[in-house]
Structures are given as structure tokens and as C-alpha cells.
Design a protein that fits this description.
Helix content of chain A: 25-40%
Order of helices and strands of chain A: EEEHEEHHHEHEHEEHEHEEHEH
CATH topology of the largest domain in chain A: Rossmann fold
CATH class of the largest domain in chain A: Alpha Beta
Largest sheet of chain B: none
Structural class of chain B: mainly alpha
Strand content of chain A: 25-35%
Radius of gyration of chain A: 24 Å
Structural class of chain A: alpha/beta
Shape of chain A: elongated
Largest sheet of chain A: 6 strands, mixed
Number of domains of chain A: 2
Number of helices of chain A: 10
Number of strands of chain B: 0
Oligomer: heterodimer
Shape of chain B: globular
Strand content of chain B: under 5%
Strand order of the largest sheet of chain A: 5-6-7-3-8-9
Number of domains of chain B: 1
Distance between the termini of chain B: 37 Å
Distance between the termini of chain A: 30 Å
CATH architecture of the largest domain in chain A: 3-Layer(aba) Sandwich
Order of helices and strands of chain B: HHHHHHHHHH
Helix content of chain B: over 70%
Chain lengths: 306, 243
């Protein structure tokens, strides 16, 4: 017997010759879990299979111990905000959220709808059709309809996309609060900094494969341990390269006209020492810039590592 | 704020789908087609020449049952679930604790709700203003309504299952219903148009058209098609993947 809300075992999903998910296995327990991966990594496909919207090609998904496709009644315990922006464009926000409440058979759908709209800080008195809403407002409408039945499991596909910084902060606080209340919240994102702010457990997915899982800190360490490539601009590249190699922090250096590309496995130590080495070499530093600190490079490293 | 009793899920989904398929563009275009039936009825009434009963029957058969109702049903019914599946909003109905058969039935009911005033009502009015008596009106009403429910059930499922349902639906209407079923007696038995036309002709006391079936068959076959089509749509919702 397990406490896991979601159990995914050997899950694979393909569309003709295209493999969207391959041999993915993990458990998700109550609290906030972030699914991190670049665009096209398979996050939305994984969400769709998890919620029963799509059939797995192989493997299994259990939510609260049951197959989500076999039991529509299970959706009573689930709130989902899919990635696509489109809503029922001619409805007002109250109509849309109330519809979700009615279909979930919430006892007092009007009150529940108003509560959910209030939670996401939108105006229930707004009678405009949803078609006129901005992207950020649509995100909050989707969140409101997902919250209206007070679900035990919240599945949110890129919930912070399109939100302004203040709304992002409020949404992150809200999701952390729900996680602390014992609900299972799973959010997807392709932005590392966003995920960091959830302070959650994360699953890293790329090219349809699960690359890493664990607390954010451990994954961050794993990412920081990889070889980093930096561009160091200077007026004396050869001298500075020689000086940096003597420190032991730099494992390789390639001299170019007016700059050096260095490789190091300890970027913070490098950043601490580079100015002193330049001073000792009487070299002038014009720039120090990471060449591969974007998420795509990190995922590439994790993919190559496996 | 006062508490309210939650309306039924079925009624709610039905109304959502009625609103979803009732776009201004569809109404404007297809209402013109409906008004054509009334205009033709008036023309039959005002004309002094030729065979008025034959012309009035042509209005019901060749315009109403062959063109108006099938086309209007195709446009609205294929959109009932098809539009939602295409734009991704079906998830907001599918991922709810709602039995799939209720969703299929609500889509079917929504299509019938919209097709009836846009197509059946003008046809019945057209038959009435043609001045050829109550029997023609009864034939138009019964045949038109039966055809509406049958095509709505079929095209609801088609919209869910295939992309470009309008193209496939038109191909089915032109090739099967209007060509093959008119020349093949065996195919005629499986044609919704031939069945409903046979019932309409019986009620209108019009001579049985080519390849006609018994009026009782004309009544029962479309109803069986409705049951099978709604069951298949339910199955598709249950087994298919939701985008």
C-alpha cells in the first residue's frame, strides 16, 4: 500500500512513429510537485494520460489507486487546468466556473463559483464574454474552474504562463498553501526559476523521458555539477587562459581573438577567482558570460548523461 | 447571497452546447435556406399554372427532405461535439463526473433543438402556405422531424470522430442518400432520406416515390439509427482520446 496520489508505471505513449513518452515511472504524493521540461518534452502528453484524456500506449497510470479512464466519477476529486487558452468564449466568468461546479455536483454551485473566482482575484461581476479576456485572465479563469470543486488533486499545465509578476507570486503562494493543506498539486513549467519558487519536489522530463526526480535543491545541485562553459572577454586572452588553468578551477580553455572559452565544473568558484587571476596577469576583463546556462543546455546535459 | 438548487448536469450541458453551435454566421446562412422553403410555398400558392399538388410535394421532398434538413442538420450537429473537440474545450465537459451517454445525448438534443426552428419549422410553414391541405403539412412535419433526429444523431458522432466532418457529411449525403439510394432498392432500405420520405408520402397521401419502403419501416428505421448513433457517440467519448 502506498500514499501516492498518482502512480505511473512504465508509461509510454506514441503517435505513429513519434514517441512522446518512453518508459516513464514515478509516484506523486501530496504536496506540490513540479514537472519541469522544455517545450515539446512530453509534459502535456503526460498530463493528458495522467488525467485519462488519452490512452497510454503501454504502461499504467493509477490515480487514488484507480484507472482514470475507467472511472469518470474519479474526476470529482480532480481539478485540471489544461494548457490551451480556449474557453467557452461566449460565456461570462461566472457562467463558466458555475458550469464546472454544476457538473461536479457541488451542492451550492453559485456560492462555490464566487468563492473560486474570488480565490484567483478576478471580478465575479464582470459580465464580459471570456473571449475578450487577456491571456493572464484566462489563466486565472482556468485555475478558478479547477478549484471550484475543492479537489484533492490539482493538475495545472503551465499555470504561470501569461501572468504578470504579482499574479505569479500570488498563484505560487496559493498553490504552496494548497500543497501544505495536504492536497496534491502538480504543475508543469519550462522555466527553472518558476519551479524553484514552488520549493517543491520536481520531475525533470525531456524528449519524453524522465531524466531526474527529487527535491528541487538536489536537482539544482545536479545541474550545477555539470561542466559549465563561459565566455571571458579580455585584452590578453592567452596570458589569462594560462593563469586560469593554473588555478585548478578551469578544466579547459580555448583562446580566441579577444576572448577565451573556459570549461569549469564549479562555476561559482570560477566567478570568485577570475578577477584575481586577471589582476595577477595584468589582463583587463571585459565580460564574463555563461554560454550554456539556459534550460535547454541543462536538459541537453541531463539527456547526454543518461 | 441566497442558495440555489443545482440544475441538472444534462440540462446544463445541453444549454451550453445549444449556445456553442448557435453562431450568428450559421444562423444567418441557414435561415436563408429555411426561408427558401416558405418562399417556395408561397410561390406554389400563388401560381395558377400546372400541377399544384405535385409542386407542393416537390417542395417537401426535393427541397425540404433532400436539401434543407440534411444540410442544416449536418452543419449544426457536426459542430455540437466537433467544434469542442477541435478547439480543445471538450475537456471542460469530458473531465467531469458526467456519464458519457449523457454528454452524447445532450449534444444530440442540442442539435435537434437548433435544427428544428431553422429547418423543420420553415418547411412546415412552407407546406402550409402552399395551400395543399393538412395532410401535406402533417407529412412535412413528421418526415421533417424524423429526418432531423436521425441526421442529428448521425452527424453528432461524425463531428466527434472525423476532422472536416462537413466534407465527409456532404459526401455521404450526395453519394449515398441522393445517388446510390435512388438507384438501388437494397441501398434505399438503409437510406434515412428514402425512409423518412416514404413516411412523409404516406401521411401526405402522395403516391409512393421510387424505392419507397413501408411507412412503418420509414418510422422505425430512423429511430433505430438514432439509438445506434447515440450509442456509438457514447462509445467514442468513452474510448477515444480528448484533445
Amino acid at each position: 500500500m502506498t500514499d501516492a496520489t498518482i502512480e505511473v508505471r512504465q508509461l509510454a505513449k506514441w503517435f505513429g512513429p513519434v514517441v512522446a513518452l518512453s518508459e516513464v515511472s514515478f509516484d506523486i504524493e501530496p504536496g506540490v510537485t513540479a514537472l519541469l521540461g522544455p517545450n515539446g518534452a512530453g509534459k502535456s502528453t503526460l498530463f493528458r494520460v495522467m488525467c485519462g484524456l488519452a490512452n497510454p500506449s503501454r504502461g499504467s497510470v493509477r490515480i487514488f489507486g484507480e484507472n482514470p479512464r475507467a472511472n469518470p466519477a474519479l474526476t470529482r476529486r480532480i481539478g485540471i487546468a489544461p494548457q490551451q487558452e480556449r474557453l467557452f468564449e461566449r460565456q461570462s466568468i461566472v457562467e463558466f466556473v458555475r458550469l464546472a461546479a454544476i457538473l461536479h455536483r457541488v451542492p451550492h454551485p453559485d456560492e462555490a463559483a464566487l468563492r473560486a473566482i474570488d480565490t484567483v482575484e478576478l471580478d465575479p461581476g464582470d459580465t464580459r464574454p471570456l473571449g475578450s479576456y487577456s491571456k493572464g485572465m484566462r489563466q486565472r479563469v482556468k485555475l478558478a474552474q479547477a478549484l471550484v470543486n475543492d479537489p484533492d488533486l490539482l493538475v495545472l499545465d503551465e499555470p504561470l504562463e501569461g501572468l504578470d509578476p504579482r499574479q505569479r507570486l500570488r498563484t505560487i503562494e496559493l498553490l504552496r498553501r494548497l500543497g501544505n493543506q495536504g492536497k496534491t498539486v502538480i504543475v508543469s513549467s519550462h522555466v527553472l526559476d518558476e519551479v524553484e519558487r514552488f520549493g517543491s519536489r520536481i520531475l525533470v522530463i525531456a524528449q519524453g523521458r524522465l531524466l531526474a526526480e527529487g527535491p528541487f535543491g538536489a536537482i539544482r545541485e545536479l545541474m550545477d555539477d555539470r561542466p559549465h562553459h563561459l565566455r571571458v572577454g579580455t585584452d590578453r586572452p592567452a596570458t589569462l587562459a594560462a593563469g586560469l588553468l593554473t588555478t585548478g578551477v578551469v578544466t579547459a580553455a580555448r583562446v580566441n581573438d579577444g576572448w577565451i572559452e573556459v570549461e569549469t565544473s564549479d562555476a561559482p568558484a570560477f566567478r570568485r577567482s577570475v578577477a584575481a587571476v586577471a589582476r595577477d596577469c595584468e589582463a583587463r576583463l571585459t565580460e564574463v558570460r555563461a554560454l550554456d546556462d539556459d534550460l535547454e543546455s541543462i536538459f541537453g546535459y541531463l539527456v547526454d548523461r543518461r | 447571497m441566497t442558495s440555489t438548487v443545482a440544475p441538472s448536469s444534462f440540462r446544463t450541458v445541453w444549454w451550453v452546447l445549444v449556445r456553442s453551435i448557435s453562431t450568428r454566421g450559421r444562423f444567418a446562412g441557414l435561415s436563408l435556406l429555411g426561408l427558401g422553403a416558405i418562399a417556395l410555398g408561397l410561390a406554389v400558392h400563388l401560381t395558377h399554372a400546372g400541377n399544384r399538388p405535385g409542386a407542393a410535394w416537390s417542395l417537401v421532398d426535393s427541397y425540404g427532405l433532400s436539401l434543407l434538413i440534411p444540410v442544416v442538420a449536418l452543419v449544426f450537429a457536426s459542430a455540437a461535439l466537433g467544434d469542442l473537440a477541435e478547439d480543445g474545450t471538450l475537456v471542460y465537459l469530458w473531465l467531469r463526473p458526467l456519464p458519457r451517454w449523457q454528454l452524447a445525448l445532450a449534444a444530440f438534443a442540442a442539435a435537434v433543438t437548433v435544427v428544428t426552428p431553422v429547418a423543420v419549422l420553415p418547411l412546415v410553414v412552407g407546406a402550409a402556405v402552399s395551400g395543399q391541405g393538412f395532410r401535406l403539412v402533417a407529412g412535412a412535419a413528421a418526415g421533417g422531424m424524423l429526418e432531423t433526429v436521425a441526421y442529428s444523431a448521425v452527424f453528432c458522432g461524425l463531428g466527434l470522430r472525423v476532422r472536416r466532418a462537413l466534407v465527409w457529411g456532404l459526401a455521404y449525403l450526395l453519394i449515398w442518400e441522393q445517388a446510390v439510394a435512388r438507384v438501388s432498392r437494397g441501398a434505399a432500405r438503409a437510406s434515412l432520406y428514402i425512409n423518412t420520405r416514404s413516411l412523409a408520402a404516406f401521411l401526405a397521401r402522395h403516391p409512393p416515390p421510387v424505392n419507397a419502403v413501408a411507412w412503418s419501416t420509414g418510422l422505425i428505421f430512423p429511430l433505430v439509427v438514432v439509438l445506434v448513433a447515440v450509442a456509438l457517440t457514447t462509445w467514442s467519448l468513452d474510448r477515444g482520446e480528448v484533445t
